[in-house]
Amino acid sequence: MDRRGLDAAALAPNVDFFMRIPLQADGSAVIEDGWSKPGDHLTLRAERDVHVVISNCPEALNPATGAGPTSVRTIRYWR
User: 44 φ, ψ to 5°?
Assistant: First the structure.
């Protein structure tokens, strides 16, 4: 990131839209089957310039992944 003039302060927490990892009362996290299904999608709108990183790596402990990556499609619209 430093080649773009960004440092750690420019990082935001990750957001996981299609995987369920609820926190338990004791503070631990568990991986549960997600609610999404093939064809589900979302639309995001940036109010300023952003760098977006997309990860489609499988989570070995999540049965929904089938232990392998699935396809993902991104579309960028400009105004």
Answer: -110, 145
